[in-house]
Amino acid sequence: MIISFKTESIRIALLISIMAVVGLIMSGISIAILYETSFNQTRLRLLETARSRARLMEAIAKYDREHLRQHGQTSIDDVVKEVLKQIREAHKNFVGFGTTGEFTLGRLEGDQIVFLLRHRHLDQDLPLSIPMKSKLGEPMRQALLGRSGILIGLDYRNVMTLAAYEPVAILNMGVVAKIDMTEIRAPFIRAGVIVLGIGMLVIALGTALFFKVGTPLAQQLAETAALRKSRQELAEAQEALQEKAVYLDNVLRTSTDLAIVATDIRFVVKYFNPVAELLFGQPAERMLGRTIESIHADLGVDPKRFEIGIANVQNQGEHRYVIAQSREEGGRIIDSRVSGILDRNGKLSGFVLMSRDVTRSKAAEEALIRSERQYRLLIESANDAILIADAQTGIIIEANTMAGELLGRPLSEVIGMHQSELHPPEEVQRYRELFREHVEKGRGLLSDILVVHRDGSRIPVEIRAGVTDLGDRKVIQGIFRDISERQALEKAIQIERIKFQATFEQAAVGIAHVSQEGRFLLVNNRFCEVIGYTCTELETKSFQEITHPGDLEANVNQVRRMLRREISRFSTEKRCFRKNGAIVWVLLTVSLMYDQDGSVQCLVASIEDISERKQLEASLQSMNIDLERKIADRTRALERSNQDLQQFAYVASHDLQEPLRLISGYVQLLEKRYKGQLDAQADKYIAYTVDGARHMQNLISNLLTYSRVGTEVGEVVDVDLNQAVQRAQSNLMHRIRETGAQISSTPLPTIRVDAVQMAQVFQNLMGNALKFIGEGIPTIHISAVRGDGEWIVSVRDNGIGIEAGHRERIFMLFQKLHSRARYDGTGIGLALCKRIVERHGGHIWVTSEPGQGSDFQFSLPDRLPSTVL
Q1: 8 Å CB contact between 479 and 463
Q2: Separation between Cα atoms, residue 513 and residue 519, nearest integer Å
């Protein structure tokens, strides 16, 4: 009995303890869930309170600003005072929320944060201030920095609070709605203490009842009494727990958007709230008793992900993950978190899954990201620099790459600059006035200004600026376009315009712009001087009015042809009437001026006074008549002179040679009969006489040949120059044999020349080469090369050569470089070659060095007419 009693007592006590522990765990879960729900609700309420108060104050400020402006007060300080007065009046009736909840308003004065409303906890009306850099008042510091949000931090009392903060940009103030963390936690701490106390009490009572009985009856009675009491206390505890569970369930059903699923250690679902029913599409009755893996399987989650998540919970206490369904599965995005449930011993006893459908928020977030990317792509693809500054502070908060290139700075340096730093210091005030006049009044700004490059250079830009309201703040958006090239072009155009005006006005010829109807649009000074009218007078006339009737029709017809695009311009000589009625001759040149569309804008006419030239032409015409008459007389005289020359040539060839032959014959006869019979002096004189007669006979013969080349007309035929060379070589055969000369030639062309005269050229050149020989065996080489429309023939020898100063002289008539005693000759041979070559349209020259031989070259055209002129 004792063993049985003890065993039974231990079992009952153990059962009571287990029930108490389970109750404590469930109560702990419920309290934790309630705490998180209450915390989130409080957080949202604070955010809503702070934002609504901030927006209300901005609305009041805008209204007061407009109201004060209508009464002639435009200072922002007046607006602040009026708004602060109304806020303080309203704050007197505001008692806060909860025990510690408080709404505060502050602003930055120097380096101090000044609180402007009565403090609930300090019970004082005077402003309270704390340093900006202090660790206290963190929520208000964030609001004054222009930020919006919620945090857990120290307030001005050095108390940890949950605080929502919001800037009031228009008033340069910040709003904070806060509540002490102790007030948020207090109900849940009390509930935890109560639940813990009840559990401990149940355990203590059960243990005491079953170990204090002495006798079996007493033990049995005590056991019965204790059992009844325990049952009653257990029922009461269960009822209390049931009430708390119902309360917790109702809270979870109505006060959260989280799907909450609680399981035991084996992942069997023990709790499934209504939000979970909506999210997972299953009723709670069907899901209770199933494992949490089945929920994930229905959502298409890989089992390995679930296993990894459970491992993270066991190691780290919780695991976050996102379930993204395909479009066929519904296309939802579910944000989930799994946490572990610990028993009183800190041992894992179950799991809580909290999930939320974030499809819409994700879509909105992705849309925002796409919008930001498109915005960034838009400003980065712009060819102009784009700068965005906070309208309140003037600090640049956004810029594109072109802005960095324009300023010569990296974007990280551009962002954060004040907009006044963009401009030269001496121009900042003027630019501020421009912005105040245009941008702040909502009219926008379009102006040319200067910006400063990092290297100090100043860049002219065209700026388009305006204010954009982003809701929470206003920004100034400026588009800067570098107009350096445009200004340089405008300056160049201005210079060209000045040059044109100067050229137009100072031109030596008259220039006029004329309409298609003939009216003068613009004339220069020279035009007025030629015509005799002033510029103002000509602007009332047409060109038809000042044109001579005899020239008008032709002038008009040419203008019409030009307007029909048959001709692009024309020039003509015409007569015009001066203002005094006198006639002036002008050289008129007319062209068309077109606009950018290719349409005719006007006619451009230039005139030059040619009256003097006309007079000179008349005089020249008279002089030409006299000159033609004189030329005719001179021609007749030359014809008579040529006839006399021909008569002289005949007399020289016939009458002069006959006596010369008679003298020469008798002198030669005396030489034959009496040579040696007289003294030596007589023989010498006879020899001189014979040689002189022979030389005189050769001279007359060569001179006659020379004169015939200029007066007689030879027939031009196709002549093989190889045959001409052979004929000359035959005529010189005696001399060739005598000297042992070597003569060679390359194939020569066939060209149209006078055959006799061409053979004479080769004979004279080869004869000279055989006459003026050096110490070695004479060599003569004849060749020809093709030139540009001509043949160049060369006769090269290895004779004594010619000095450079005599190369032109040797082609003159009767010019000899050596005495007749050394080299016989008349000095006519090369002059004759020159005359023949030139009559064939060519020319002759020599290249030579003394002792190196000579190279005589002459050119002959490819084709000649049938008769040499």
Answers
A1: yes
A2: 9
Cα-based distances in Å from 322 to 268, 281, 305, 319, 370: 22, 18, 11, 10, 21
Q: Residues 347, 351, 354, CA angle at the centre, nearest 5°? A: 145
Which of 847, 840, 677 has its CA nearest to residue 753? Answer: 840
For the cut 60, the answer to whether the pLDDT of residue 380 exceeds it is yes
Alpha-carbon gap, residue 815 to 829, rounded angstroms: 10
544 within 8 A of 525, measured Cβ to Cβ: no
- In this predicted model, what pLDDT tens digit does every residue of 87-136 receive, in sequence order? 777 776 665 677 788 888 888 888 888 888 766 665 555 557 888 888 88
For 565: left if phi > 0, alpha if psi spans -120 to 50, otherwise beta; the answer is left
For residue 814, give both structure tokens.
Answer: 């009767």
Cα distance from N-terminal residue to C-terminal residue, the chain = 171
Say how many CA atoms lie within 13 Å of 216 toward its Cβ: 4
Residue 160's DSSP bridge partners are 154
Low-confidence winner among 27-41, 600-614, 741-755 (lowest mean pLDDT): 27-41
Sign, CA dihedral 523-524-527-533, equals positive
Reference 717, options 752, 749, 760; nearest CA is 752
Taking CA 60 as the corner, what is the angle to CA 70 and CA 166, rounded to the nearest 5 degrees?
Answer: 140
Its sign, for the CA torsion 529, 532, 534, 538, is: negative
How many Å apart are CA 790 and CA 863, to the nearest integer?
Answer: 8
* E-only strand ranges, 207-298: 259-264, 269-272
The position carrying tokens 């101090």 is: 112
Could you identify the residue written with the tokens 């509540």? Answer: 179
pLDDT of the residue at 4: 47
717 Cβ neighbours under 8 A, 6+ residues apart? 752, 753, 755, 866
* Residue pair 466/445 in contact by the 8 Å Cβ criterion: yes
Sign of CA dihedral 32, 34, 40, 46: negative
Q: Which residues pair with 577 in a beta bridge?
A: 583
List beta partners, residue 605: 512, 590
> pLDDT digit string (tens) for 386-437?
888 887 888 888 888 888 888 899 988 888 888 888 888 888 888 888 777 7
Closest CA to 335 of 352, 348, 353, 350: 353
Q: What is the pLDDT of residues 280-335, one digit of tens each?
A: 778 888 888 888 777 777 777 777 777 787 888 878 778 888 877 766 666 778 88
| Beta partners for residue 459, in sequence order | 451
- The pLDDT score that the predictor gives to residue 784 is 92
